[in-house]
Amino acid sequence: MTSRRRLIAALPALALLPVVRGLPARAQADDDPLAPYLWTARPVIVFANTDRDPRFIRQMKELDRVAADLEERDVVVIVDTEPGPSRYETTDLRRKFRPHDFNVLVIGKDGEVKKRSPVPLGGDGIARLIDRLPIRQQELGRR
């Protein structure tokens, strides 16, 4: 069973959210790996050196727990558990964000990093953070 299938099987509610496993390296270094999500989705990127990392497992369970709330906030979960043999032979996401070991990033629809954490984040905290963002406030009609 592949890692992706194992992950989805272990966390069935997370299947409601789009989950992308490691974005492949591109030919041009100037390409933004998050360009497809700009102004349409809020990526939550989970970096780990292996999908067996306890922090990674805990983070994925937490995202699973609040999957419906995150879906309502246009969140797409991107998972990168393949660091590559060197920092030059790795994914575009790792080149762009340079994570050390485990990292969780919450990215706004504007493409900016809103939160970066070396420890797993609570799902409710991620939802509250997103709800405080100006674009989310506009979406809710509060401005």
Describe the structure.
A 5-stranded mixed beta sheet has the order 1-3-2-4-5. A hairpin with a 5-residue loop joins strand 4 and strand 5. It is globular, with a radius of gyration of 15 Å. The protein has a single domain (3-22, 36-139), classed as Glutaredoxin. The chain is built from 6 helices and 5 strands. The protein has 143 residues and is an alpha/beta fold.
Keywords:
single chain, 143 residues, alpha/beta, Glutaredoxin, five-stranded mixed beta sheet, 34% helix, 17% strand
Write the layout of secondary structure elements.
Layout: H1 3-10, E1 19-21, E2 42-47, H2 54-65, H3 67-72, E3 75-80, H4 92-97, E4 103-107, E5 113-117, H5 123-132, H6 134-139
Parallel strand pairs: 1-3, 2-3
Antiparallel strand pairs: 2-4, 4-5
How is this structure best summarized?
This protein is α/β, with parallel strands linked by helices. Helix content is 34%, strand content 17%.
Strand order of the largest sheet: 1-3-2-4-5
- What radius of gyration results from the CA coordinates? 15 Å
Q: What count of domains describes the coordinates?
A: 1
Pattern of helices and strands: HEEHHEHEEHH
Predict the CATH topology: Glutaredoxin
> Approximately what portion of the residues adopt beta-strand conformation?
15-25%
* Overall body shape: globular
Query: What kind of oligomer do you see?
Result: single chain
Q: What count of helical segments does DSSP give?
A: 6
Largest sheet: 5 strands, mixed
